[in-house]
Amino acid sequence: MTKISASLFAITLCAQCLATAADTPPPLKIHTAELPNGLKIVLAEDRSRPVINLQVWYHVGSKDEKVNRTGFAHLFEHMMFRGSKNVGPEEHMRIVRESGGVLNAYTSFDQTVYWQTFPSNFLERMIWLEADRLASLDVSEANFKKEREVVKEERRLRFENPPYGTLLEEVLKNTFTNYPYKHSPIGSMEDLNKASITDVQEFHSLYYVPNNATIVAVGDFDTKEAVALITKHFSSIPKGKPIPRITTKEPELTAGREVTVKDKKAPLDAVVTAYHLPSLGHPDTYALEIASAILSSGQSSRLYKRLVYDEQSALAAQGQSLFLEGPSIFFGFAVVNQGKNIKEVATSLEYTFGEMAEKPVTDEELGKAKNQTIAGFILGREGVQARADFLGRCAVLLNNPELYNTELENYRKVTAADVQRVVKKYLAKNRQIKLFIQPDQSAAKEAAKQ
Amino acid sequence: MRTITLLTSISLLAATLAAQTAPKQTPPPPTAPRPFDFPKATSKTLPNGLRVYVVEDHRLPLVAATLQVLAGNAYVAPEKSGLASMTAGLLREGTTTRTSQQLAKAVDNVGGNLSASAGDDISGVAMSFMKSYASLGMELMADITRNPAFAQEEIDRQMRQAQSGFAVSYTNPEYLAPLAGARAILGAHPYAYPGEGTPATLRNIKRDDIVGFYKANYSPGRAWIAVAGDVTPAEGFALVEKYFGTWNAPAAPDTKLAPPPAPKAQVLIVDMPTAVQTQIVVGHVGVPRNHPDYLALVMANQIFGGSFNSRINMKLRANEGLTYGARSGFEPNRQAGGFQASTFTRTEKTADAIRMIMDLLKEFKENPATQAEFDEAKAYTLGVFGISTETSGAVASRILTNYVYNLPEDYWVNYRKNVQAITREQLSAALQKFLQTDKLTVVAVGNAKEFSKALEVYGPTRVIKGEDIDFVAADLLKVKEKVVVSGATSAAGKALIDQAVAAMGGLAKLQSIKDISLKGKLKLTLPQGAFDATTEEIILYPDRYKMVMTLPMMAITQVLDGSAGWMAQGAQVMDLPAQMVPELAKSIPTSGGGIGLLVAAATGKAEVNAVSDDTVLWKSGGFEVKVTFDKATHLPAKLAYKAQGMTGPAETESSLSDYKDVDGIKIAYTSLIMQNGQKMGEGALTEVKLNPGVAPESFKKK
Q1: Contacts of residue A80 in chain B, CB cutoff 8 Å?
Q2: What CATH architecture does domain A30-234 belong to?
């Protein structure tokens, strides 16, 4: 009895600690502007180090691809390094590099983002580089074809060769029936082969226009000067046509589905349970993120504790929400340990979710998940790049850069009842898509014989 | 002054570009750089020998610390590879006062991070906590560093997880290529072996090894710590002193490693017939981190394979479209690690890609750097330094490298000055002295039949099947239980069996046993914890077996009734899955101390061959058992065989002792059962009845 009250005391103490001012991340002073051609600018000065991260967000992703052109948004991202009017093929990289900077780009379902981190005295050069490839793209047919081969190697490396490489594709294919999230940003080999240089020009003139772009920068600059430099290099680029947006609806799931996939690269059984979630920005997303943290953040999380530590039925177990602009998904994932039964592991996953719908999470778990979230806001935003990543997400996908400073409050407000309600609502059995991934040994044996 | 030189060269370059295509704009020039000095660290050494650094940075309410200790993989014998990683990993899994789950909760509850891992030279323990929990973070960090419990059940759990992890990684060419590269290039040097061990080496690691390794290496005299973030130096030192000040453990002297073997031309191919893409490594031995040419060589590597615009990536990726990426780099350690170029390409382009890498390396040796390449590499190295030291954690980790690699205390303060001083001639000379293009190792992991012939031009070529590879074996091959069967081994095996049969009571007596009943106690060590069970076994030779195990929560029954099998758990009765029938059948010859094994061998129903002077390999049907006899008594001392374990097929060993006489026959009353080197159970018989008259009906399904 003494023991119980002692731990209750500890919890109360912990809940109080939660709100200490010392552990609140310092707010960003955000400045926004928009040019007449529709280009949005989001800036946050931080002069503590002579470093800047500059990103250009294009509001186009794999969901915007035409039929039979899966993987094109990403293939196009590669083309942006293959030359523009004043910058030769691969020169972009060289120029950033000789400035002492680093760069990269990524393509997701909803957005394509180009970034560079560099010594702050090179700001104008970086702005010039980005403006040049937005204003004009100059890619030869030969370079297009070579780059397509590069992307195919990327697909082989990340998806076709490693164990469970095609898992994400299987999950998406089986989770969405209509919505263009049913394919992953890497696309299919078949569609990559169909893409042409004409597609490249079309895509550029439709989506790579100022009215579909947002410049985000965090670091060592004077805001006024930065706005002036961006205006100088971007304002002459003409505004494009209105951007076509996806209107497809994904039908509501009313009955569960179960699918078995034979995977010749999978060494062990694996099980995925997927559910539809509301879109990014929906008020329920905060409670769902807290639920994800309770399920799988850290070694004391429910999934790790049950499946990996106690039962030892899984090599790894995770529950994760993937919030997107359109219908989003939550998936539980477990790799089944050798000699363990896939159905039992699936049942354990389901049971763990079910338990959270049945009774509220403890105050201790809730406090823990919130502390992890607060810590994530501090630990995860240490450098200029990490801060610009989140600022861009708030500005472009959530349409409000100020959320950068206020999002944490929304997580702090989540109650145990909220968590129970959202788990019950979204992670219900009749909304579940269950995937059993099993090694296809016949394929492996066949290959060995040849 | 230097900035001006740089500017001139850039505008010259831009002018050249502009000349080629008339109206091109030139990139805008930079403004004056903001001065930036490498952040200062304050340091002191505690009376117990622990060196402490504090890097003060109040930008975020965050405190991080890293402790490093000379306890890396290089201090481990090859056959125990993985010992350093296992030891480090287990620090996080419980101390003398906190269980693994209590530690996890303490860390997770406040959103902290606490981790431990091993590298080649050092092991590291790291924490990062929000400022208000900094003291808790340091307390937990000290607790896992100073008081690890190394509980047997945690060791077992880690081992099982690691073995399952191997099942996944050993099918991945991207995992195998660097391991194969390290062994091929570094030979039998301590850096050559996989840090996380192999399926075989982890089975060799026992708790005593872990405790021994910890005691020999984890001490303040072999360790140093950096605290970085929202603390003043005084606060930082006080935190460390409070939790590490009383840490006293004798320090073993710092042993110096030998340099790796000299490079040689050779080809190693790991065959993965289902691969669609080949992983490629080409290289030879590198240089130690504190080598005088290190900085020049790293800048040279920038040109060859250290960036997107490097020669190898421009050729293989941008110009040929063969790969998503090609790069090269050094793995600097206290001793030389490898220098490796690596890439991956679709199977049919494997030979082309390797030929291009070989050609590029030869060209590199002839012409290490054009002036433009040199200027770019230098400008990048200078400029990126500010980015790579942006956070206090990054600053702290650089300061720690001074200590590991015996670099001067002011190494990072003077870093940019030293980079600036390097000339193109120095860089070229260093590279030309270092690179030996006639002594390169080529490693390819992929579908061998498509390219192995074409690679033979690069040196003596070996092809090893993916499933046969053992990264610790001298010849890289798994030892297969290949017993050379001859008249001699057969006769010697028979002799050992005959001695054992005589010792147990003689063949006539053993053959007279038609059925047996055994009752006993079993202490089970399972992942879920330790359990006490009672067991009742009955055997009706040759093919009926029943075992009832009663656990605190339920009874489990497993039965073979001569034709099929069934099982019961509590009230639930079901057929035994087909694959479990032969598994359970293994109990018939092995139960009762292996009476069945001996009789079968003595009457010619099983094949036996001696594998040493006290061990025979026993075979019947598909079942193989290694039986080891006690040299003094000739009685069976150990049975070793493969069986289904908790997490899949497991090497099972049953050690027999406490022989007692029952009706003139010697029966082993106690047995210790190990699986994959971990204890699984201890059995003690309480009642043995020979020929009690077990009826076939006793085995019928309920």
Answers
A1: none
A2: 2-Layer Sandwich (3.30)
